[in-house]
Amino acid sequence: MTGFRGWRICHMKVTPLRLTPGADLRLALENWMAQQSEQASCLISGIGSLSVAQLRLAGRKESTILRGELEILGLAGTLCADGAHLHIAIADSSGSVIGGHLCLGSLVRTTAELVVGLLPEWQFRRQLDPATGYAELQIRPVPPT
């Protein structure tokens, strides 16, 4: 397990965000993170609705596009300046639920209400892991100043 260094008190700066209709959910989060001085954050809560959901389902290389009145049941993941790893669960108008990796092109229908935790004591980076073939999370404490 990477990142666990024993128990210690960590500070978190909590920021609520609301995205409006038409916003690209993933792109908005990545752009917001790029404007922060902190180098690590996590999604604490994410609900709302989408008109288009672009997901990469487990084990698939290409994304799946869903259209309609879609409810965001949950959004979780990590953000850093060089990328995001976000998972989303959504329900369609019949209540069928699907989830996967949130991709660019997922558009807010009415709202997305998000609570993000900025972690000023940590640095997150994404680096290609030859074992997985994906840019995986690298976790480091921020060096003392």
Describe the structure.
- This protein is mostly beta strands and about 140 residues long.
- It has one domain (about 15-140): Hypothetical protein, similar to alpha- acetolactate decarboxylase, domain 2 (60s Ribosomal Protein L30, Chain: A), CATH 3.30.1330.80.
- It is built from one helix and eight strands; from the N terminus they run βαβββββββ.
- Strands 1, 2, 3, 4, 5 and 6 form a six-stranded antiparallel beta sheet that branches. The chain has a two-stranded antiparallel ribbon with strand order 7-8.
- A hairpin with a 5-residue loop joins strand 4 (about 85-90) and strand 5.
- The model has no long low-confidence stretch (mean pLDDT about 95).
Oligomer: single chain
- Described by the principal axes of the CA atoms, the overall outline is globular
Low-confidence stretches: none
State the end-to-end CA separation: 27 Å
What structural category characterises the helix and strand content? mainly beta
Beta-strand portion reads over 45%
- What pattern of helices and strands is seen along the backbone? EHEEEEEEE
Give the integer mean of the pLDDT values: 93
CATH architecture: 2-Layer Sandwich
Secondary structure tally, helices = 1
